């Protein structure tokens, strides 16, 4: 594990206490690492990541799938377009800048954007400990009686060995856990129920080993469900697919320019300052930009594929690939040979019925739960200002002032949508937000540009 010895941001040796530990090393923490580098802050920083290597949504790296935001909303450009960590500099480094311009697009392939993020992450390898799952964060009191540091307990996911490190500042940015409805919960070995986040890493291999027809159900009506529905049709000739959505139809995402302004960095402050009821109303009104919706160009592609089936077979019930609206999944029945029938409820009359097909595989594309911080911070719950994990505009958890020292704290990333708006879980504002969080964590270092490279090799 990287050492905490040596002088940190305060210029003092402090018994192995890190200036900053980031729990999770996905895009949010990576944006913070980039901001620390660009500001030349000489902080002793450690990143703990559960995965064995950097990978962004590895289970959804579908061939030909594109990003849904402009490449200009990368890890640096909106904060500092002169940064070495911009997407354009990545392309330049990889000798693809001119070729990329010939594509005439702002939307890179998702596989390429993952490679960009991985390229950025590689410059911080000496500060990252991969294969470490954080189990808990415990407050440690100083002579003043207030919390002056935090002890972070993690385990090696291969060996189960426990390790602890200490830090004055901790950022929790672990992303979301797959959300699987209770009606589809199955913890058995070789379960036929798979969350969409594991699609690319498990489903193609599963289907490649199947001989004869294979029936697949997709549960969900958003972008992930639609991408999987399209990918299965494109790549596997022996697959029959049924996509179930509770809505009356697959609906388009709204990325028109006026609506898209809700993802502008300055809108975070506007949203944060709204009364609670106005925040809830705003989130509801803006839902069509991101949740349960599909990019229009993908909808067009799917409709064309449905139309081709209609050309040859007017009876939809006989189609190989079907979109079944107004159905929610309320349970399932296991059959022999690993097959499953779904119990479906009509959203019109609430009548229940078993699916016509017996499925070999159920892919659940129902989003994520973002509450991992609640368990990690259980031991400091009594120190909270409001009894809840409320955060300030700077994302710092609100502990009582008499309980936690000023130069000490916890910051949350990616789980503050209710207080900071719809962009909180997305990539859109990462570069600006990373800079804001760094200024909050290290206020005494603001404006520092002394050429310190924070132990990072020169870019290449």
Structural account:
With 460 residues, this protein is of the alpha/beta class. The chain is 26% helix and 21% strand. The strands form 4 sheets. Strands 1, 2, 3, 4, 5, 6 and 17 form a 7-stranded mixed beta sheet that branches. α6 crosses α10. The longest helix has 17 residues. The protein is globular, with a radius of gyration of 24 Å. The N terminus and C terminus are likely disordered.
Would you spell out the secondary-structure blueprint of this structure?
Layout: E1 17-23, H1 27-38, E2 45-49, H2 87-93, H3 97-101, H4 110-122, E3 128-130, E4 132-141, E5 147-156, E6 162-172, E7 177-178, E8 193-195, H5 199-208, E9 214-219, H6 223-235, E10 239-244, H7 257-260, H8 267-272, H9 276-285, H10 296-312, E11 321-324, E12 327-334, E13 340-346, E14 352-354, E15 361-364, E16 368-369, H11 372-376, E17 409-412, H12 417-420, H13 430-441
Parallel strand pairs: 1-2, 1-6, 2-3, 6-17, 8-15, 9-10, 9-15, 10-11
Antiparallel strand pairs: 4-5, 5-6, 7-16, 12-13, 13-14
Helix pairs in contact: 1-13, 6-10
How would you sum up this structure in a few lines?
This protein has 460 residues and is of the alpha/beta class.
Category from helices, strands and their pairing: alpha/beta
Percent range for β-strand residues: 15-25%
| Gyration radius, in Å | 24 Å
Residues in helix, %: 25-40%
Average pLDDT score: 92
H and E string: EHEHHHEEEEEEHEHEHHHHEEEEEEHEHH
What is the number of strand segments?
Answer: 17
User: Sheet bearing the most strands, described?
Assistant: 7 strands, mixed
